[in-house]
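User: Reviewer 2 asked us to show a designed sequence for the structure in our supplementary figure. I'm pasting the structure tokens here. Could you produce the per-position amino acids so we can include them in the response letter?
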């Protein structure tokens, strides 16, 4: 098995939904088969769509996922779907090149320039070391915060290098092992969602940052993880603590047109007056970070009490 890179645009040419599937032609079948059962990173190119003049893509790695299987596309000859699990977006995108360093060595020409030929391959294989370095860069904030939270005071004589053996475990454990653990995933999801919403509550427009630089807003899953929800930003909302509590209990929800819905008879008028003046959800500027209508429908049908 090998690690890999899947390239997908903001407006994909194919039927991609990164947190669930990657659509590709037979050209890349061998490369995708090589990563089944292993991990890949998603890369966003400069072009945002199939239009030749489209620009604005981040030219960066932005998420990781584990490839579980390949299935033929029943509607398009010689095309396939790679299905994924454990999708997790980085807490910040990682550019393919930083200074003279290329995260994928194959993208660097002998003269130091960028290989356009390699960049033209939408699916690429990468080494374990390259994958590890991309993840460490992409989850730098989450790694720091989760490691800091494990550091506790230990009695004199029991510390080694300032940390107990238990405290050192997060630093020694391979990062891919941490990516599948719920505490790490919750932390990374929170960073990604808060960043997408500018640390602002999507329902009230309230943005509070404390003296330590931390935002009051919380990251809420629209479809709960326990019910099959993903850790994609498209399955998340930035909500203040009280609104988060109401959303999880079905007292408020969101319509397909982003109108805020309230469960009649369950909330006093003093609470509803907190919502945005136009009674609509504030959403990220990027289309690929906005709530997936499928998740909103699940919340209305399964959780909302309206």
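Assistant: Here is a per-position design you can include in the supplement:
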């Amino acid at each position: 098995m090998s690690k890999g890179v899947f390239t997908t645009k903001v407006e994909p040419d194919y039927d991609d939904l990164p947190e669930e599937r990657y659509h590709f032609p037979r050209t890349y079948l061998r490369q995708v088969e090589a990563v089944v059962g292993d991990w890949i990173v998603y890369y966003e190119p400069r072009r945002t769509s199939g239009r030749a003049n489209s620009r604005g893509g981040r030219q960066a790695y932005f998420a990781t996922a584990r490839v579980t299987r390949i299935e033929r596309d029943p509607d398009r000859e010689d095309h396939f779907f790679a299905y994924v699990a454990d999708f997790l977006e980085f807490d910040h995108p990682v550019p393919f090149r930083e200074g003279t360093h290329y995260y994928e060595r194959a993208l660097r020409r002998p003269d130091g320039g960028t290989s356009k030929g390699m960049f033209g391959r939408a699916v690429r294989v990468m080494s374990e070391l390259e994958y590890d370095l991309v993840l460490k860069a992409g989850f730098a904030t989450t790694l720091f915060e989760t490691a800091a939270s494990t550091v506790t005071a230990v009695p004199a004589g029991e510390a080694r290098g300032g940390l107990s053996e238990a405290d050192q475990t997060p630093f020694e454990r391979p990062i891919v092992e941490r990516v599948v653990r719920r505490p790490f995933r919750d932390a990374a999801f929170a960073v990604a969602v808060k960043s997408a919403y500018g640390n602002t509550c999507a329902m009230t427009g309230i943005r509070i940052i404390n003296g330590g630089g931390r935002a009051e807003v919380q990251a809420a899953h629209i479809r709960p993880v326990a019910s099959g929800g993903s850790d994609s930003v498209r399955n998340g909302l930035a909500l203040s603590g009280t609104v988060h509590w109401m959303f999880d209990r079905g007292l408020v929800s969101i319509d397909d047109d982003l109108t805020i819905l309230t469960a009649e008879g369950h909330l006093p008028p003093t609470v509803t007056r907190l919502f945005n003046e136009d009674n609509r959800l504030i959403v990220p500027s990027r289309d690929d970070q906005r709530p997936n209508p499928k998740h909103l429908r699940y919340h209305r049908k399964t959780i909302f009490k309206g």
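For the response letter, you might also mention the following. The mean pLDDT is 89. The radius of gyration is 21 Å.
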